[in-house]
Each structure stands twice: as C-alpha cells, then as structure tokens.
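Researcher: Let's do a round of design. I'm pasting the structure tokens now; please hold your answer until I've finished.
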C-alpha cells in the first residue's frame, strides 16, 4: 500500500533528497506519536509499508521536517495492538520527493509501542497521597508524589529531610517536633467510604505523649476530623485512631495495646484501613484491633498534617516518618506482608 498525503507529482532532474531522521522510535502506550521526519532538502513525504494506514502526516507541504502521528491523532493501547503482525511494532516505509520530483531511497521505520507496567493496581485511580520524603539532607521540600492527588509541596515550619535515618530510599522526614501541612482537600477527608492510611515511623522517646503520624485534626474543638497516632506511656507505644463526627466530639478506636511498639529507634509499619464494614489497625502487617461500629468523619476545613495536629499546635511526633500513603480503598482487610521496598509509583 502506498499512502501519499497531498503529494503533488513527480518532476525530474537534480540530486535526490535524503531522509536523515532515525529509522526506529519507541513510545509508551497511551501517548500521542509526534515523530519528526527530517530531510536534507525541501520535500514532501510518501508513506508505504504494511502499517501505512495506521499513521498519517500532520501536514505535507514541501518542508525540511514533517510530523508523523497515529492515524486520527489517537493513542495506542499495548494490550490491543492493531499493527499487521499484532506485536506492537508498526512497520512503514518512507520516501522523500523534492520540488523537482526526485525520490529519495526507501527508508524503513519501525514504531514500537511499549507497555506501561503498573505495579500498584490503585495507582491510577485511588492513591490520593504519597510521599517518600526524598531529597537532599537538610532540605525542607516535601512533595506529594501521587498520580491522582498530586497536592504539591507541604508547608513546613521546622523539621528537615534527613539521610541519616530512613526506611526506604535515601532519606526520611525528621519531625523535630513540627509538622508538614497541605491545604484541606476532599482527598484528605475520609467521609464514610473505604480508605487505607499507612506509613513507616520510628520513635526517639517513649515519654508520655501522643505522636501524630497523619491526620486532619485541629488543636481546638469544632474542626476535628481524624488522626492516626502513637500513644506512648513511658515504656512503650500503641497505635490508635481518634475521629470526630461533629467536629467537636473526640472518639478513640482501634488502640493496639502497649505490646507491639516497644523499641526506640526501630522502624515500624503503621496502618489503619476500612473496607466499608470493618475498621482495622495493624502494626508491621499484623492486625491488632478492629471495629464494626460504623461512623462518618466530620468534613473539617483544617489542614492535612504529618507529624502534628493540623495547625502545628501540638501532638508532635518525636522521631522520623517515611513512605506515607493514603488510598481511598481498603488495600488489606486483614493481616498482610509489609512492603519490602518503597511503595510503587506506578
């Protein structure tokens, strides 16, 4: 099959043009093709080959560069190839013809569509917040890395990224009795739907305190919603959650007991999830408490915070936190194997 877009005809005489662009190109599925066909003299382009019908030129004047795209300017799905061999390699031929009608040699072009490997089945739909606290030692720039939420950089009072202590990656957040805060968004409101809250943390002290991991929880009644924290009693800690249905009531659930967080300077994985019928708390993947007493969460206007309450007015985490994630589904709904690497970003 020969495909000619606005080709005006042959003439003759002179030196034939040469196509000097690459003979192959690869791109990931779900992306638009915009391949530049480059010639050494003013030319039009003739497209042929077994997959000629699958591509088109954006325009075909006499020019030095032409843009090749998928026919209809659509995208391709790796799982549904429509090339002649159904192997995600689209094979075409190209020829250039100059204003005198001189034809270039035939050039073969293979366009390969690559698969996007999604490790996290919830990455594109339900992971609304994720940060690994990666950065230079001493930096205070912490960014939400989630695909769905992408809530930008946190507001930071004090506290820094540190490379001295981390669970995964190259760094973690050292709270220094301060917080990271993002403006409130529906992604941070738990409402009545399913969710999973999780992170890795380590404590510097068991002195009696409440160490916030994450939450939307003001320092004053009237704007409370939810908070996941570690309560310490002087010798150990317990993971727990408090919530508010009115903004003023403050109800504690899912306390794990003081037998699971017993070592200072040790990294623990904390998780609380809800599958629509049951709330569960976990330490290092082991379910420690559950509740089927259903409730909503007040739609607070307070910031979402890590390391303290929402207005940095207390409940400070004395330690480090790494790999904090919120997913608007129940990921586990029972004892699970703790991730052995940073959460996937895709």
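Researcher: That's everything. Go ahead.
Model: Designed sequence:
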């Amino acid at each position: 099959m020969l495909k000619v877009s606005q080709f005006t005809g042959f003439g003759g005489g002179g030196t034939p043009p040469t196509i000097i662009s690459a003979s192959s190109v690869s791109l990931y599925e779900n992306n638009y093709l915009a391949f530049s066909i480059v010639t050494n003299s003013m030319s039009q382009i003739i497209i042929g080959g077994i997959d000629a019908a699958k591509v088109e030129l954006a325009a075909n004047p006499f020019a030095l560069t032409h843009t090749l795209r998928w026919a209809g300017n659509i995208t391709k799905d790796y799982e549904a190839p429509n090339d002649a061999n159904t192997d995600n390699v689209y094979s075409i031929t190209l020829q250039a013809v100059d204003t005198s009608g001189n034809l270039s040699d035939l050039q073969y072009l293979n366009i390969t569509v690559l698969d996007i490997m999604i490790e996290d089945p919830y990455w594109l739909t339900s992971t609304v917040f994720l940060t690994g606290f990666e950065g230079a030692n001493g930096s205070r720039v912490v960014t939400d890395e989630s695909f769905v939420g992408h809530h930008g950089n946190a507001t930071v009072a004090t506290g820094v990224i540190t490379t001295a202590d981390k669970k995964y990656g190259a760094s973690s957040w050292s709270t220094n009795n301060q917080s990271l805060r993002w403006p409130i968004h529906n992604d941070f409101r738990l409402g009545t739907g399913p969710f999973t809250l999780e992170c890795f943390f380590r404590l510097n002290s068991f002195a009696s305190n409440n160490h916030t991991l994450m939450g939307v929880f003001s320092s004053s009644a009237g704007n409370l919603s939810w908070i996941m924290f570690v309560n310490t009693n002087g010798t150990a800690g317990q993971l727990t959650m408090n919530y508010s249905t009115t903004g003023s009531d403050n109800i504690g659930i899912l306390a794990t007991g003081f037998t699971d967080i017993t070592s200072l300077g040790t990294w623990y994985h904390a998780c609380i999830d809800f599958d629509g019928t049951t709330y569960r708390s976990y330490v290092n993947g082991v379910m420690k408490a559950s509740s089927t007493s259903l409730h909503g969460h007040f739609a607070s206007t307070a910031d979402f915070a890590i390391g303290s309450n929402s207005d940095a007015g207390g409940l400070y985490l004395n330690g480090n936190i790494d790999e904090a994630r919120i997913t608007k589904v129940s990921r586990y709904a029972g004892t699970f194997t703790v991730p052995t690497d940073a959460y996937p970003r895709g």
